[in-house]
Amino acid sequence: MTLLIHPSLNLSDLLNFLKGIAFRSGLTHFEYCKSLLMKKTLIACSLLLSTLSLAQEAPNNFDFEKTDSGTVTSLGVFGSEEYKLIIDTINVQSGSKAVQIQSADVEGGYKAISYTIPAVYQGSKVKLTGYIKTENVTDGYAGLWMRIDPGLGFDNMQNRGITGTTDWTQYEITLDLKAMSAKNIIVGGLLVGKGKMWVDNLSLTIDDKPFAEAPPRAIPPAQKDDEFNSGSNIDLTADMLDATLADDLTLLGKVWGFLKYHHPAIGKGNYNWDYELFRVLTDFLKAQSPQRAQTLLSWIAQYGAIAACETCQPTSADAFLKPDMAWIENIDHAPLREKLQFIYQNRHQGEHYYIAMAAGVGNPEFKNEAAYANMPYPDAGFRLLALYKYWNMVHYYFPYKNLIDKDWSTVLKAYLPAFIGAEDELEYELAAIGIIGDIKDTHANLWGGGNKVREWKGEKYPPVRVKFIENQLVVTDFFNEEHKTIMGLIIGDVITHIKGQPVADLVEERMPYYPASNQPTRLRDIAIDILRSNDSTINITYQKNGTARVIDLPVFKREDLNYYGWYRPEPEGKSFKKLSDGIGYITLKNIKPEDIPLIKEQFADTRGIVIDIRNYPSTFVPFLLGSFFLSEPTEFVKFTGGNVNNPGEFSFGPALEIPGQKDAYKGKVVVLVNELSQSQAEYTTMAFRANSNTTVIGSTTAGADGNVTSFLMPGGLRTMISGIGVYYPNGKETQRVGIVPDIEVLPTIKGIREGKDELLEKAIEVINSTNLDKTKN
Q1: Which of 102, 119, 635, 669 has the fewest CB atoms lying closer than 10 Å?
Q2: Measured between alpha carbons, how far is residue 351 from residues 128, 176, 181, 662, 715 in Å?
Q3: pTM of this structure
Q4: Domain range spanning residue 205?
Q5: Are 406 and 387 found together in one domain?
Q6: Closest to 444 (Cα-Cα) out of 680, 723, 727
Q7: Is the domain of 280 the same as that of 192?
Q8: What average pLDDT does the structure give for the chain?
Q9: How far is 462 from 558, CA to CA, in rounded Å?
Q10: Do 619 and 554 lie in a common domain?
Q11: What digits encode the pLDDT tens for the residues 592-620?
């Protein structure tokens, strides 16, 4: 995502907004960008993600001579629809055509054009030059802009934009290409605010050569290695896994991962590190245990001498998390131990083939990782590789490693039997879920590739939504209207047995296969799946007026139900309304950017506002709505981020602020949360909590905060982690803890049967009592 920033917005403000962007891949970037138009300081937000690029002409048309006259339709064009964009044949810098952009009377308006060029060139610097002419540009600026994707560099001239009336003048932008990681170079011109601009004769060079003449990017040797595409050829079974081999394979896995993220030759992309594992494994397994350390030394020597590192810095004394190298210190083979210590002291620096940090946010991006989807049940070598990859990813780049219950140094060895001994695809997927669950992160699950796990859970779904309330499994809703009271089952009934087995026993059995940050969230996810089946019915026992009833409940294909997982969506419903007695109500599950100014206007004189975040916000509102409740800027969050140059180090950045406004809301604010409040919902609650007049009501949230990072594993598996650490300004944790409410209110079975929203009722009570206290005072 690219922000086009008003000149009055400084870099610090920009980073605040960048760091606040989408926590989950499900965030609607378009709606978020539209919401920025509501703010005077944020003029516009472009959506030039590579996957969203609009139709464009060939990049050799940088002088626009091949563009049809009249309204431009073939360039990449985005921004305010009211702005005019035409091909001008009179006002040109050279040739016969130039692009003209003319503003409209639109608050926060802008218009931009773009070209997207695949970054297939070698080089260090990319430069965009072009000619711009302006007429009466005010309340913004005109300029060139360039971005290198994915998120590697950006400049839109916002701090040196062109204003007023100017004749044709050449301007330029220069960025670091970062050729190893770059996917696309996106360039163009833009007008922010009022007036007219013309742009002509764009030119793109790489290291001062026209980009089309720049040398093609060399294919890293790692990408040319295909020796093991069809299998590892490793002979390894669970029967071979005695205590000695388990210790030795554990050491190999840690050395392999250490070299992946620290050795300069691997960092440069000189080796397919997955396949290098299989090469050393052959000799490693043949050697006797005493010789295996020497095998590792000889293996390391193959990758060449390591030059002294002149830029390596020691771990910062202020680092929140420090690299854990205790396992190296505990190696009893002195030459191997000293070699690894030398590599650490002279580790890879700068751009890395396998790992990067997302620009502006700081969560890790794992690059050039293959999923090996052609082998859904990988052989023993690839299964071992999966374990090594995951353990090391967490060891060096999980920001909440310190919160893992288990001693992570022991986990790799503990999972060797499960991964090596997995006898089929299901057992392999369950082994993966097992280690994923150990990091206790609700963001971390088997989000892709778990075909057999889905079959194991059941391909058909019940007609009812159930939830654990007062430690019992309770019917809370029906997906379809026609299924209400199906076979006598009604809302509020308690299911006690499934297929004759007590629900409590089933929950205990399934706990290891439902990764979550805390128990309420785990129960949330178990409840969603517990009545799934592969049969046409599922046998249940439920309580009706104190009497046990047994029925065979029909189950359905998901597409035959108006199915939902966490909460019933209302995409067409209104996100706000006034309740009785002058209390406003807002739900974030379907809030739209255009709702926010209406909310501020219509709720300004209410006695209190209830904000319902028992959902996942459909629009990113911490700043847009959060500022309504504050009269001055207020800190609400700070992050930790990792360090590619020193894997395992995590440090705090500065706290972020919610901007205030002069006419801030004066009434009571109550926020409703529960186990459905996850990630962006939790972050948003933190923003509203910056207001001292806010009360949070409900129950502990999902405890998974921070921008997510995807990670691929052999067998086509895909998982995620929370990629940055999210903390209150005082350093208090949110991960696993969640947002702890000021007033705990849990739904009751009685309330469910009576159709009550007990959290909302408590919120209204709090607002009324607050206003009563004010009246008395």
Answers
A1: 635
A2: 23, 11, 8, 45, 28
A3: 0.82
A4: 48-213
A5: yes
A6: 723
A7: no
A8: 89
A9: 9
A10: no
A11: 989 999 999 999 999 999 999 999 999 99
